[in-house]
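User: Can you write out an input/output pair for a complex, sequences first and structure second?

Assistant: Here is one pair. Inputs:
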Amino acid sequence: MNAPDFGTEHLGTVELRIPSKPEWVAVARLAVAAIANRLPFSVEEIEDLKLAIAEACTICIQQGTGIQTIDIMCDASVSQLRVEVRDDRYRTLGAIGGEKRPTMSVAEGEGLGIFLIQALMDNLEYNSDPKYGTELVMTKRVGA
Amino acid sequence: MDIKVHVRESDDDAYVVELGGEIDVYTSPKVKDAITELIDQGHYNLVIDLEKVRYIDSTGLGVLIGGLKRVREHGGTVNLVCTNPQIKKIFDITGLVKIFGIFDDEAAAKKALA
């Protein structure tokens, strides 16, 4: 994974690790909403972010047999919020093989979740592999 | 995080499922159970009231789609009551506005079942 291009002033990075269980997805959703609230996003844009992050966590849970945790890393800058969501298998194994693997196309992806993320966010990179785990990297620009 | 599910029989042979709260990967199984139970009992014309739903994700949409597919096999349908712009937006971008009847109030949703 390349270093993020913040484009404008970097405000800060927030990292959150949740158990890979459905009851914890709401925590990630609300945390990202609180972070987005620090940026000049509209209420509608924050709702989009909440849904996209929840969908990403749900995809990690549904595709990750045996995973224990999900990491959510938010990089906030003046003009955008970049969010990385990855399961613990990707964290430990994905870095080894991940760079060689192409980004999965949405057509190969799973259902409505990916479709919604792509519709609600400005950019999405999606990697998922039974061996290497799941990673979603997405960006939402302010006022886009 | 909460979900409230209330099922009641309407006076015109339809069943109304009132949902409230948040429908996500954690709470959607409870919604699925309620809808499945109604269908298993032979009720194929359903109104699902989303007026008190603050949030719905793809798993919630999946439950509604699954319910609609099952009732259609028996000649029934599912109409929704929803005025929340954020939730209507989700139905819009997924194209589900073309699949479900979405109405502003329960009376209109029930009338469209007939």
